[in-house]
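Suppose you are handed a protein chain with no further information: no name, no annotation, nothing but its sequence. What can you learn? This example shows the usual starting point.
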Amino acid sequence: VLNNPTQSYLYFFVLGLSLAAMQQGVFLAVGAGIQEERSAKADRLYLRSPGTLFAKLFPYWLSALAAFALTIFVAVEIFSLPAKGQLASLLLLASSFLLAAVAFSALLAAICPDELTFVRLSIAYTVPAFVLSGYTWPQASMGSGNQLLSALLPLSYLSDDVRQLLIGGYAPALYRDSLILAVIALICCLGLCAVEKRRAASDEGKQVLV
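A reasonable first move is to predict its three-dimensional structure. Written in structure tokens, the prediction is:
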């Protein structure tokens, strides 16, 4: 209802659905890349250092940022959603979210034993993440358990802020949510490095035994 005087369902739902679909695209692309690298028989690139981590994930982040720009363009130019917020605010939020989404999906792909398992988990994640993000149902009205789950999901710090920026022109939690997303990205990157170091050590141990 807020900043939506016409009660338009288009304003309420389409943008959030587009963002959820974009997130799934990021997940599938990153997951396929990580799993393909793992399945290679030679010249494996283990993400054990900040340099290799940056080299591997930066292209996904940059491509995802372009996808976000395309999503906003389609929402505004084709679906005629208003665009009252500043472009700099949108880019700040999108950059932080996509960094978190790329790192989160890379960590999940590294943990999964194969690509099929990752695809199943990422698809199973998408709808609950959208519902729990607070976009279609206020987080304040959720139970304490669901609020805790919502706080762990990157999409929870993006969708509402984007809608507020576009339709209302201002998102009061913009900087807080951008910082939280950056922290989520850092935690996932550290976890990814730890998983790959352990896998590399395990593989080296197997080679010594052979």
